[in-house]
Each structure stands twice: as C-alpha cells, then as structure tokens.
Amino acid sequence: MPVLDRFSLDGKVALVTGGAGLYGRFVAEGLAEAGAFVYVASRNLDNCRALASELSEKGLSASAAELDLSDPGSIDALYRRVMGEQGRIDILVNNAVLRPMRGYEDPLEAFRTSMEVNAVGVFDITRTFAEAMKERGEGSIINISSIHGMVGPDFTLYEGTNMDAPPDYFFHKAGLINLTRYLASKLGPYGIRVNCVSPGGLFNYQDGRFVERYNKSTFLGRMAYGEDIKGVVVFLASDASKYITGANIPVDGGYTAK
C-alpha cells in the first residue's frame, strides 16, 4: 500500500468527545478530512450541531451528539446510537475536559466534580466503546492530555495576569497519560491501540504578558494553533501508526524537551 494511503480513514467511524471545543473542533475536522464519519459530541448540543453542519457544508461526514460524561446513562445512550446507526466504532478520541477549578484555593467540591468527568467519565466511555472494538479485533483510542500532565506548573508565566494553573487539571492530565499505558496493555491483545497526545498551550488571545513569556519558553517561539493537532491525531487514528501503542506524543513546540 502506498504510504499516503495508510493515512486514509475512508470507511472509518470516529467519536470525538468535547468535539466542539477549542481543540476538539480541529480534531473532528482533521478526522473528517481524512475520510472518517465523525460524531461530534459534548454537553453543548447546539455547538456540536453548528460544527457538524459546517463540516457537512464542506462535503465532509459528521453528526452532532449530546454527551454528558458525568452521566453513565448518557454514555450508554450514545453507544447505542452509534452502534445502531453505524454498527461499528473505529476511533475514539477522549478530548473532553471539565475545568471547574480556577486555582489552588478553590473549594474541594470543585475537585470532586472534576473527578466525575475527567477520571470516572473518561474511563467509563473508553471501557464502553472498547467493547465494540474488541468484537471486531481492532480500533484506535486517542487520549488528549497536556504538557501539564508531563511537567509541573511554571507560575511565573501567570504573574500579573488573572490566569492560574489549577491543580485538578495537572492531576487528571498526568493520570490520563498513565491510563493510556494501562489500556494499551489491557486492550492490545484485542488489536486495539491506545495512544496519547499532549498539546502545549493553545493560543486563544490570552493576556499578552503570558503569551510573550510562553513563546519564549518554547523552541519554536510560539503557542500552539488548533491546526497543529490535526496531523498527529490522524496519524494515530490511521494505519500509518499500526505498530504504535502506549505512546505519549508531545505537540508543544519543544516546551517539554528542555
């Protein structure tokens, strides 16, 4: 098979959680551009519908879906819908993240709320959809972590701004990287690959002081753009990465390579 053909996702079915978010919309678009039918799922169904419509207008295949990761019933309903409509799931991208904490001093209840989605919910949806992959003997699960799961916070980046680095985010993103390794080991015998992508800071018109400091902390001298995540996700979803599992790939302009 020609090497570029190995990147094709024609005939594949993908689910992207948090699919209408800052990174999620680019993940969904990239998978659809590579040929997959993509379910764009999140709690905000209107945003998912808007993105699915946008992709459809470009001649791509996508559908909106409502998903609340804190509700097992919502996960089961989405699983039944995907199986009923498509009869298969080839790609699961765990991109959704709930960020109830804004800083170290926030109420403990905010941390508990975070656990329900970013830990329990992620495991629940992965285990649920992995069952369909196990039956077919193949599949690709891609977890979207963060460089904040790999390194500690640099609080000097936020000085003089209203930005902060909340502890729950660091906790869950680090856990997701090792959960990736666990699942790669557990599901490997069924032909299911599980990998992780750890993006760096995404430019979203943050405080200029933060942006300037962050840019200087990377080898490439800039923050990430949404387009930067497309290629690595399509690679991990496709046969181009058929012998890669349990890996964590930083997409961070060199931030963690220092």
Helices, strands, pairings?
Elements: E1 13-17, H1 24-33, E2 37-42, H2 45-57, E3 62-66, H3 72-86, E4 91-94, H4 108-136, E5 139-144, H5 167-187, E6 192-199, H6 208-216, H7 230-237, E7 248-251
Helix pairs in contact: 1-7, 3-4, 4-5
Number of helices: 7
**Rg, Å, rounded:** 18 Å
Number of domains: 1
Biggest sheet: strands, sense, closure? 7 strands, parallel
**Total number of beta strands:** 7
Secondary structural class: alpha/beta
Overview of this structure, please?
There is one protein chain. By secondary structure, this protein is of the alpha/beta class. The protein has one domain: Rossmann fold. It has seven helices and seven strands. Strands 3-2-1-4-5-6-7 form a seven-stranded parallel beta sheet, with helices on both faces. Helix 1 crosses helix 7, helix 3 (72-86) packs parallel to helix 4 (108-136) and helix 4 (108-136) runs parallel beside helix 5. It is globular. The protein starts with 12 loop residues before the first strand and ends in a 7-residue tail after the last strand. The model has no long low-confidence stretch (mean pLDDT 97).
Please name the defining characteristics of this protein.
258 residues, alpha/beta, Rossmann fold, seven-stranded parallel β-sheet, globular
At a glance:
With 258 residues, the chain is an alpha/beta fold. Helix content is 41%, strand content 15%. It has one domain: Rossmann fold.
